[in-house]
Amino acid sequence: MGLFDLISIAVGLSMDAFAVSLVNGMTMLKLKARQALVIALFFGFFQGLMPSLGYAAGVGFTKYINAFSHWIALFVLLIIGGKMVYEGIKCRNEKCAIKVFCLKLIAIQAVATSIDALMTGVTFAAGGVSLFTAVLIISPITFVISYAGVYVGKKFGDLFKSNSEILGGVILIIIGLKIFVGHYL
């Protein structure tokens, strides 16, 4: 597998992380550079970790991982997205829409959006792709794309104000459904 192929895979894998980073940026009233950095680090780290785990698991566990991964992503993103929609409807004023920066939530989002990277790692193992090279490409690309996503999301959040929580929740639900439906297509 060539460099262009790995870069293309990295960009493709990072799209869910970008969308969720966008949501995180949208729902923060005051965004600090440190928060954007932490979000990007989490997404970059897990997008690199999951192919490593998939690679280590190898082809033997593929059917077990593949049987449940889409359900886990759907469940997690539906719960987080549904909660955001509920909170957004319940709290239509700006004071109530303040989102607390929560590392646990960021970690859960990062894991949920990197499950497809786990399966990619399995294919890397089967195809003899250098794991080190793949992770060296996937992690930084996801980091940069996620970092940009937080700031783009902040701009949208400023534009949509109190509806950003609802919009963000809907986006997370759509991502969960995309992962789920994509498994069967």
Characterise this structure.
The chain is built from 7 helices and no strands. The protein has one domain. Helix 2 runs antiparallel to helix 6. Helices cover 83% and strands 0% of the residues. It is globular and about 50 Å long. It starts with a helix and ends with a helix. It is mainly alpha-helical. The mean pLDDT is 86.
In short:
The chain is mainly α. 83% of the residues lie in helices and 0% in strands.
Distance between the termini: 24 Å
Number of helices: 7
> How many separate domains make up the residues?
1
Poorly predicted ranges (pLDDT <50, ≥5 residues)? none
How is the topology of this model organized?
Elements: H1 3-26, H2 33-57, H3 62-90, H4 103-113, H5 115-127, H6 131-160, H7 164-184
Helix pairs in contact: 1-2, 1-6, 1-7, 2-4, 2-5, 2-6, 3-4, 3-5, 3-7
List keywords for this structure.
185 residues, mainly alpha
